[in-house]
Design brief:
By secondary structure, the chain is mostly beta strands. The chain contains 1 helix and 11 strands. It has 2 domains: 3-33, no CATH class; 46-154, RNA polymerase II/Efflux pump adaptor protein, barrel-sandwich hybrid domain (OB fold (Dihydrolipoamide Acetyltransferase, E2P), Beta Barrel), CATH 2.40.50.100. The longest helix is centred in the N-terminal third of the chain and has 13 residues, at 3-15. Pathway: Lipid metabolism; fatty acid biosynthesis.
Length: 155
């Protein structure tokens, strides 16, 4: 089967409500399935990533390290990780302006858009969930990402 025909079939599935498409042509067959593990309700919504399980937020309290070696303790030196609220493809560059949405060393405030995750052809703006400075970008532009995958470190 011609690769152009396969690409056209993929586009057909992406542009429609079809969940699965199977085509048989002689002895050759192609099956294209769309999986939707995280339902998306509306286009261009801004999401705050869920709080990272690595650094729990406890307002107005200081967490002191435990002397016991058997229990893990919170380390203030560890940067906060912004994690993905969904499965999709992450974009670090704005498609319209071709400008990066964020970069290492950038100061961000909670609510600033730092990346876009495309899921099922819908763009979802992902906002920083705390004030700080971006210390690391853990994903590449156009990379497929999983649910709760760390995206960016903020100090």
């Amino acid at each position: 089967m011609d690769i152009r025909k396969i690409k056209k079939l993929i586009e057909l599935v992406q542009e429609s409500d079809i969940a699965e498409l199977e085509i048989k042509e002689g002895e050759e067959s192609v099956r294209i399935c769309r999986h939707s593990p995280v339902p998306i309700q509306a286009n261009n919504q801004t999401y705050l990533a869920p709080a990272s399980s690595v650094a729990p937020a406890i307002p107005n309290q200081q967490i002191k390290p435990n002397n016991s070696d058997s229990e893990s303790s919170y380390n203030d030196d560890e940067p906060h990780q912004l994690i993905s609220p969904m499965v999709g493809t992450v974009y670090l560059i704005d498609k319209q302006s071709q400008a990066p949405l964020c970069h290492v060393g950038q100061t961000v405030k909670a609510g600033d858009i730092v990346c876009i995750i495309e899921a099922m052809t819908m763009s979802n703006r992902i906002a920083a969930d705390k004030d700080g400075v971006i210390s690391a970008i853990l994903v590449d532009d156009g990379q497929a990402i999983d649910f709760e995958q760390p995206l960016i470190e903020i100090e």
